[in-house]
Write a structure and sequence with these properties.
A: mainly alpha, Cytochrome C Oxidase, Chain A, 16 helices, 2% strand, binds copper (II) ion
Chain lengths: 567, 305
């Protein structure tokens, strides 16, 4: 922290004529980024590598959809196809969607919302990023050594016998797990210990509640994945036999271990998405969030319940019917806090003055798609229907509605919401609307058809299919191409905004949380003054100032902490 | 402790993003506790794997644990408990700025930690010599120079078999002064009588009492005496689990030694003269958990009944 003192004097002062000091121009050169302890820069680096992973996973997805355009071989062999869907799943889950929101937007926004200078443990934050890089490199190296063909779940006994590079891929996932643990740990400590004056637990922005609940799961579930993957590696390299029935082991035990992590991991993915929703919906409805405490508690409830439902992935594995019934009932219970959130968001919108800007368009998409994704989850949680739907495209469609329709769409909402804050530039609103529409249409075309063919019995992960599924598969593939065009347009206008975008005001949307109280992009030390928190959803405290095309606080002193004595 | 710490952190230099030293200390402490929770869950997964396998195949564990040396395990437990004491003492010394005491305690803790690894090395080495290794590397063989075959006669069964074979073996082990730990095969005379007897005792003898090929040929001089192996199927799994658990724990001990070394070097540089003690406190916390995990490993692997 030696560099800290040198900047302290220049904190908030313009770095030169016409150029304000910001975290973006605070240090120059690649090393000033790679070894930075600044949460904002770490967030940006995470954003870059995570979007690269999303691109990679997306390329695999396009290969899969193109192959499925016709029955039989279209562009690749069956073996290649097995590798494609495995890599699509593994890359999207471990490299993109699990770290997705917390490591990028969480890292950037969380300390700002707290009015803090950084996360509590900046070195650990950097270590977490480096672990991500190492883990991702090992995982990607596995593609070159011998792309894995087990599916992203690495089920035994196939994963212990296949000739592909399972060890490299799982070792990568193991390391990525520690990256995730350290991010979560850091956020827990930061939220506990660094809240500003006036911010009691129930005056925290709901984004923080969401990230906090996520962090609890990251910290409690991920170590179990770590040991599971280690056992799998031992099983494969040493032949231990804990998962091998020939040696007295139990392959279903692997599934229990795996889902003890991977079901809560689903909430590592969706809770931060819900966290973004609570911010965006309130701000773009121009209304105070409805049911604050319910939304906050439901995040915690989801985090805790998420640990009790993993058995619903094994309804057809020969579990006792009593176990099945218990897991089924517990699975239904998760729907309650999720629905509590959705109803509160709807109530927030009710009689609000809704602005259909890009973040809100994504938020509305989220509500629609997440509702479908969540409710179809109940079909799969019911024992009788699950037996029919298990391992069909219905399951594929369900989790894409939750993971893509929920998490990715919310991630896009968050990106569009905080983009001006992060880069200090506005993007083209019109193109943003075009791409939001394309993504919505493309997504539904891709995955709604999969609900239909799944319920008609099309099994997931199959290379070939019956003639009668052709129309569904082709519609799905067309949808995926529309989706891709939507994303390409988004890449275009966002990159354009980085270079040519209009300068963003400090508060373009009228949000009342603390990150909007500092300049866009924020200075190196985040705030010029010690901050104090008020009601994070008191939107009436702000008014539109046409001269800066942004919102200003009617009483700026309300968020400034009383000056302290000796510092 | 907290109030105490609060007093002592006043006026210390802090990282730029903290308001005061107390906030910094409390953050480090909470972070460490959360990290330790993840460690517990990490090992927790192993304990679950252990429990499931043991529940399904108790005979494997009951057979296997005889080959672990209880006295060496107990010695290591004592060593680690002592090291926890010295680690805690080091924290106190750092808080009181007693630098010489701090350095001494850090050195002692490292000494204990190395002692632990030394004993562990002796144990591993003996397993290695007898081929009692994990999974595919499990090729037990009798080292004729030092191994002694333990014979359980028919009389033993008639007199003491009610308590089960293990008790007999344990009794013999006491007599034999720990020789058993060096032995792989437990030979029993009078097979036809022994098998049902064992079964009647909710056996410690495996249902599938066939050892790997090459093992069952340890004959005795008298041809009239039939010999059975009590080695259950998949006996190697016990050793797999043993090496996995103790190996992973050993890596944590190595990590601890590294951390204590770092503290010692910091102490020599005079870092702790300023009154900073957070680092010592955190490493000691970690160390206590490493000790705690060992105690469970000792109970679950060595002291099976
Ligand atoms: Cu699940």
């Amino acid at each position: 922290m030696t560099d800290a003192t040198t900047v302290l004097t220049g904190d908030g002062q313009p770095a030169g004529p016409g150029q304000r000091d910001s975290y973006l121009n605070h240090g120059k050169g690649v090393l000033s980024w790679l070894f930075t302890l600044d949460h904002k820069r770490i967030g940006i680096m995470y954003l870059a590598v995570i979007l690269a992973s999303f691109f990679l996973g997306g390329v695999f997805a396009m290969f899969i959809r193109t192959e499925l355009l016709t029955p039989g071989q279209t562009i690749m062999t069956a073996d290649t196809y097995n590798k494609m869907f495995t890599l699509h799943g593994a890359v999207m889950i471990f490299l993109f969607i699990i770290p997705g929101i917390p490591a990028t937007l969480g890292n950037f926004v969380l300390p700002l919302m707290l009015g803090a200078k950084d996360v509590a443990l900046p070195r650990l934050n950097l270590a977490s990023f480096w672990l991500w890089l190492i883990g991702a490199s090992v995982a990607v190296a596995s593609i070159i050594i011998g792309a894995v063909d087990t599916g992203w779940t690495f089920y035994t006994p196939y994963s212990t016998t296949t000739g592909t590079a399972v060890v490299a891929m799982t070792l990568g996932a193991f390391i990525l797990g520690f990256s995730s643990i350290f991010t979560g740990l850091n956020f827990i400590v930061t939220i506990h210990k660094m809240r500003p004056e006036g911010m009691t637990w129930f005056r925290m922005p709901l984004f923080l509640w969401g990230i906090y609940s996520t962090a609890i799961i990251q910290v409690l579930a991920t170590p179990v994945l770590g040991i599971t993957l280690l056992l799998l590696i031992a099983e494969r390299t040493l032949g231990v036999g804990i998962f091998d029935p020939a040696l007295g082991g139990d392959p279903v035990l692997y599934q229990h271990f795996f889902w003890f992590y991977s079901h809560p991991a689903v909430y590592i993915m969706i809770l931060p998405a819900m966290a973004i929703m609570s911010e965006v919906i309130s701000v773009f409805s121009g209304k105070h969030i409805f049911g604050y405490r319910f939304i906050a508690w439901s995040s915690i409830a989801i985090a805790l319940l998420s640990f009790l439902v993993w058995g619903h992935h094994m309804f057809t594995s020969g579990q006792s019917s009593l176990t099945n019934m218990i897991f089924s009932a517990l699975t239904f219970s998760v729907a309650i806090p999720s629905a509590v959130k959705v109803f509160n968001w709807l109530a927030t919108m009710y009689k609000g003055s809704i602005r259909l800007a890009a973040p809100m368009l994504y938020a509305l998409s989220f509500l629609f798609l997440f509702a479908i994704g969540g409710l179809t989850g109940l079909f799969l949680g019911s024992l009788s229907t699950d037996i029919h739907l298990h391992d069909t495209y219905f399951v594929v469609a369900h989790f894409h509605y939750v993971m893509f329709g929920g998490t990715v769409i919310a991630f896009l909402a968050g990106i569009h919401y905080w983009w001006p804050k992060i880069f200090g530039r506005m993007y083209s609103e019109r193109w943003a609307q075009v791409s939001a529409l394309l993504i919505f249409v493309g997504f539904n075309l891709t995955f709604f058809t999969q609900f239909v063919m799944g319920s008609h019995g099309m099994p997931r992960r199959y290379y070939n299919y019956l003639e009668r599924f052709t129309a569904y598969h082709q519609a799905s593939t067309v949808g995926s191409f529309i989706l891709m065009i939507g994303f390409l347009i988004m890449a275009g206008y966002l990159l354009h905004s980085l270079v040519r975008g209009e300068r963003a005001p400090a508060n373009p949307w009228g949000g009342a949380t603390l990150e909007w109280e500092t300049a866009s992009p924020p200075p190196y030390f985040n705030f010029e003054h010690e901050m104090q928190a008020g009601d994070p959803y008191d939107l009436d405290a702000l008014s539109w100032d046409p001269s800066i095309k942004g919102y200003v606080r009617r009483d700026p002193s309300s968020v400034l902490a009383a000056p302290r004595g000796a510092d | 402790m907290t109030e105490n710490a609060h007093l002592e952190t006043d006026g210390l230099a802090v990282d730029h993003h903290f308001e005061n030293a107390d906030q910094q200390y409390q953050s480090a402490k909470l972070g460490m506790w959360v990290f330790l929770a993840t460690e517990i869950l990490f090992f927790g997964g192993l304990f679950v794997a252990y429990s499931v396998y043991r529940l399904n195949h108790p005979e494997v564990f009951i057979f296997g644990h005889h080959f672990l040396d209880k006295s060496l395990g107990a010695l290591n437990t004592v060593i680690l408990i002592c090291s926890s004491l010295t680690a805690a003492w080091a924290v106190r010394a750092a808080q009181l700025k007693q630098i010489r005491m701090l350095k001494g305690m850090l050195l002692l803790t490292m000494l204990f930690a190395f002692g632990f690894l030394g004993v562990k090395a002796v144990e591993y080495n003996s397993k290695w010599k007898h081929g009692l290794l994990w999974a595919r590397e499990y090729h037990p063989h009798v080292d004729h120079e030092e191994a002694s075959e333990i014979l359980i006669t028919k009389e033993d069964f008639e007199t003491g078999a009610v308590e089960g074979v293990v008790e007999d073996v344990t009794a013999l082990q006491k007599v034999g002064d720990g020789v058993l730990a060096e032995t792989e095969t437990v030979l029993i005379e009078e097979a036809p009588a022994a098998a049902p007897a064992a079964e009647a005792n909710r056996s410690t003898i495996a249902p599938a009492a066939e050892g790997p090929p090459g093992l069952a040929t340890q004959g005795t001089e008298e041809s009239s005496e039939k010999v059975i192996e009590v080695e259950p199927a998949n006996a190697q799994t016990f050793f797999s689990i043993y090496f996995l658990m103790t190996g992973l724990h050993g890596i944590h001990v190595l990590g601890g030694i590294g951390a204590f070394m770092w503290l010692y070097l910091s102490a020599r540089r005079g870092y702790f003269s300023t009154g900073h003690f957070t680092r010592v406190d955190m490493v000691a916390l970690y160390w206590h958990v490493v000790d705690l995990i060992w105690i469970y490993l000792f109970l679950l692997l060595y002291l099976i009944e």
